[in-house]
Amino acid sequence: MSTHEVISAMKQKVSLLEEALAEAREDNDMWDRIFTENYWGMVISDVLTGQLIKVNPRYAEMLGYSADELIGKSIYDVYAPEFHQKLPEIMRHIHEREHYAYNSAHIRKDGSSFPVHIDTYEVTIKERRLRVVSIWDITESERKEKELSHYRKNLEELVKLRTNELVRINNQLRSEIAKKEAVEHKLAQTNQELINTLESISDGFLAVNRQRVITYANQAFVEAQGNNISGNLIGSDFEEFYQNGSKKIIDFCLQVMEDEKPARLETYAPLMGNWVEISVYPTESGISIFLRNIEERKKMEKAVEEEHQRLYTLFNSFPGLIFVQEENYKIRFANSRFRDKFGPWEGKRCYELIAGLARPCDECVTSTVFGNVRSLWKERLFENRIYEKFIQPFIDADGSRLIFKVLIDITDRKYADREMARLDRLNMVGEMAAGIAHEVRNPLTTVHGFLQLLAAKDSTREYHEFYKLMIEELDRANLIITDFLSLASDKTSDFELINISVIVRSLFPLLSADALNKEKEIYLELEQVPDTKGNENELRQLLLNLARNGLEAMQGGGRTLTIQTYKLGNYIILRVRDQGEGIDPMILEKLGTPFLATKVRGTGLGVAICQSIAARHNAVINYETNPGGTTVTVKFAVSNY
């Protein structure tokens, strides 16, 4: 090869080398720019010494150094101390794998550390082992990762809670579904049992909704209608079904549906051809109707009513007061005499009508009679009349427990019995007086005469007081005998026309003097009364006895005895009223009994004599007494002459 060719070839090689160098420089500038301007930190270190050979500005900025300050530092100077022990192991992984990525922490110039992600690999350049390292500051990433982890954890917990809640709700729903199914099953059984019950009863049953459509009817109802049902009853219109029946029944049932209050009706059902008891109950969907055949009961009630009517007619003809009482004290029946006495009784209770009370009487024996189931006789005083009460419990035809009560006015009989007893006593006293008066008077007269003779002698002067006392006692005994004879007297032949007011006025001076001695007063209220037949002396004695009894009954002075006379109908009334303390009820019952005395020295014959005189004048003596005084009323019949 010629020299020219060699030179030409050399130039060509030089040219190629220059082009390659230029390309290498361009590549080197490119890679250097990439290394320098990269967003993440980049470091080249020696594998053997661990010294930093080259760092880019981004990495120096991460650590707070300048790039020159980092050149020559060891990797131990930039790694956080807690990772120093891990570095040999990390370097071994890098050497074995030639490429290794991991997380670590670097330390800044100010001593603070921050997390980094490191991607490293080893290369050999000119027989020198170098380690090329890329570093990312993952502080923000870790923060976000932590936030993400926290969020994920919270989300997981929320999901877990929600899952648990969903599981609980699901279990609860399953339980409720199971319960609902059980309830539905039980409801179905109950409905079936209800239907079976409705089908088993003898009463007709009908269900109607608020659209007035029949939704159910039991077999008893269908059979009761007979041939009146055409087609299917269920689903038909209630009013159309009953249009040929009773409008009264339709209106009654629809009124219950409107009012939403249960009600009961007894009426004749044309479709059934008999009397029925209709019970209607409102429901949420409409009404339930029960129909019961009461034809037999109506016949029985009619028979009972007829029997009651016969009994009521009999009771109305009875002279006593009759009524029938229920257990709640309400009067079920009373005869006409009871109505005449107490007024209308319908719907009233016995204690309201008879006694005018708001509750049963304290002495009421209703519960006792019902408990013992035996009759009872009692006497009762009502409005100054004496009633004999007969009480008999019984059970009525309808099964109700009742009490039959009869009140018979026995006042007149009681008074007659009392008067008969009094007359018997007077008759006995009269017979005694007629039998012994004359026999007793003869020896009394003899003794009285001899005592007077002895009292007149001077030799017996020292005994004169004793003689005087004995003579006074004999005079007293003679007075008693005179009263006896007065009781025995039954003469009316000496009756003449007298005026009671005139007799009272004639005795007024005597009575006034007697009252004045006792520091009391006599007050007259005398009206003009007609003359009547009577014995003036006996009537004077009657008035004196009554007036003196009244004066003696008033203890202490300043009290007044009032004497009245007036005409009342066909009667002349003589009334003596005192202001004493009244008569003991035990004594009042026995007034008129001979020798019954309330005064210390009384004979016990004064009232008996007054009653004897009144009886001879066809008069009646009545006593009204209370703690404020006693009023004696003598009622004389006006004589027809």
How would you sum up this structure, described in words?
The chain has 641 residues and is an alpha+beta fold. The chain is built from 19 helices and 22 strands. A 5-stranded antiparallel β-sheet has the order 2-1-5-4-3. Strands 7-6-10-9-8 form a 5-stranded antiparallel β-sheet, with helices on both faces. The longest helix has 62 residues, at 139-200. It starts with a helix and ends with a strand.
Low-confidence regions: none
SS-derived structural category: alpha+beta
- The span between the termini is 214 Å
Portion of residues in beta strands equals: 15-25%
Spatial extent as radius of gyration: 68 Å
Helix segment tally: 19
Biggest β-sheet strands, sense, barrel? 5 strands, antiparallel
With strands numbered from the N-terminus, the spatial order across the biggest sheet is: 2-1-5-4-3
**Mean of pLDDT:** 79
Number of strands: 22
Indicate the overall shape: elongated
The percentage helix is 40-55%
Tell me the layout of helices and strands.
Blueprint: H1 3-37, E1 41-46, E2 52-55, H2 57-63, H3 67-70, H4 75-78, H5 87-97, E3 99-107, E4 113-125, E5 128-137, H6 139-200, E6 204-209, E7 214-217, H7 219-225, H8 238-241, H9 247-259, E8 263-269, E9 274-282, E10 286-293, H10 295-316, E11 321-326, E12 331-334, H11 336-342, H12 350-353, H13 366-372, E13 376-382, E14 385-395, E15 401-409, H14 411-456, H15 464-488, E16 496-498, H16 500-517, E17 521-526, E18 532-534, H17 536-553, E19 560-568, E20 571-577, H18 585-588, H19 606-616, E21 619-626, E22 629-637
Parallel strand pairs: 17-19
Antiparallel strand pairs: 1-2, 1-5, 3-4, 4-5, 6-7, 6-10, 8-9, 9-10, 11-12, 11-15, 13-14, 14-15, 16-18, 19-20, 20-22, 21-22
Helix pairs in contact: 14-15, 16-17, 17-19
